[in-house]
Design goal:
Helix content: 55-70%
Number of strands: 0
Number of helices: 20
Order of helices and strands: HHHHHHHHHHHHHHHHHHHH
Structural class: mainly alpha
Radius of gyration: 27 Å
Length: about 325
Amino acid sequence: MHFHYPELDHLDDDDLGFLEQLNQADEKRRFVTLMNIADEEREDLLPWLHYAVAHDPSALVRVEAAKRLEGWEDSNSLQALAQALLDKDVSVVNAATQSLSEVKQEKSADVLVTYLSNEVSVVKVAILRALKPLRYVEAYAQITQHTQHSDALVRREAVSTLSWLQQEQAVDNLSQIAQHDSDLETRRIATGGLGYVKQPSDAVIHALAQGLQSENWQLRVEAALTIGKLKLQMLESDLIALLYDRYWQVRIAVTRSLGVLKSVQALDGLAHNFDFDLSNLRKEVALALGEIGGERAEKLLQAHADDADPEVRKAIRIGLGQIVEREHAH
């Protein structure tokens, strides 16, 4: 066993006690000592956490160090976590990935983005995931490049991160990925990612219409929800057809979006689903009817006011309240 924790500057007696324990052969003593050091939350002691995650022979200690570096966004801590993504122990990699995913400061992206050049997929996935909430537009080209990576796991993260950038220039790329990527999950992510578009192009509309026709029910769900977000009235008929889909998950998504579209044409299909066994679907129908409004929607809600499920009854009351409020407003 060859390791030697470094002696830092300006150590007091307690710190020297920590150092002595860190250099013990017993991994459990090192583990507990590292926990105590981390609890101090002192930046001047961070080099011990950096050393631990990189050099301690015990995976138990390396995992703890990776976890305890969460929240520290100085360059050295970020680099230590990024290097830990190459650890031979998957639990260390997972801990480092999780800590990096909690990065909050935009300036941290400057450090992290350099690791996208690493050829190891697990590194790319973790870095892309960390970059996503930072919306680091400066990395647009690098992120876009990774949407064509040979590893589907990398493409999924790249497409998700690209969507979060919310750049109009990415719309056509996302539309193509939503239609043609060989990985269904990547297509689903791209489909949902189109929800930020301000002025949907023909390419976006075509991609979402195709998503509704997919053999994969998760993709149909994502397309239906995205259509609702974008309020694409021209796809109303396509949605209505899916009110009879054999998957209840699709029906729920479609019902929700038809409510957003205030689709009077959907009333027959919604009435059909009000008799479905699944209470979650009946609840969505009630809420959609409230959004659509009108005399027939009101009568449908009143006819089911005694539904056996209390959550459905609550949704019916909400729906009826919306209709009444709308009538009084006029």
